[in-house]
Amino acid sequence: MTKNIIKIGLMNLAAMALALPVFAATFSLSPANISVKQGQSFNAVISLNPQGVKNYTAKVELKYPADLLEVKSFAFGDKWMPLSQTGYDLVDNAGGTMIKTAGYPGGAISAATFGTVSFKAKKNGNGIISVGNNSQIFDATNANILNGFSQVSVAISAPTPTITKQTTPIPTVSVSPSLTPEVSAEPQAQANQGGLFATIGGAMTLGTGNKWLGGFVVLAVVVAGYYLVKKISRKFKNKRS
Hints:
This protein is of the alpha+beta class.
């Protein structure tokens, strides 16, 4: 009876040991939830946790909704050495799949950033970014020790409509040309008359500026003219008689 109990106990322990997973390392994505607007870009970080077992090579397969998202770029974390062979390096935005593979010199034994993916939101909707089943993490014996992985929920909203502010046009003010004021000819005539009087005055003073002398000369000329005309008239009368 006792022997049977011991056998049953050993069998249960063996079954439990076989049931324990041989995998240890995990992949995780962060942040867990992302909210963006259509047309915006965002980043998702892929982290590796070896859980105490050295990880030498890691292959990540990301699955995402191709109608909502597209991969814009990917950057490996520090120390990772990329493998670019066919089947290990792929970005398929039409199918919604990205594959990146790299080795870690000396093996990664503590949590490390595998890489950062930049996505662009193509249209509004909800989707999931997840680590695909073809992902792998290899230890020193080249055994796949991947144990688990996480996913990211993405909510894309419609862009905020741009409100165009209407401005009231400023009315154009027409300025009438100023009329040229009419210049009266009267001042000019007065100026001409003033000039004539000045000329006569100048003649009367004979350029000396002495009005008395000028007046005397003019009077003498008038008297002489008078006698001259009178003398001529007498001669003319004598001839007729």
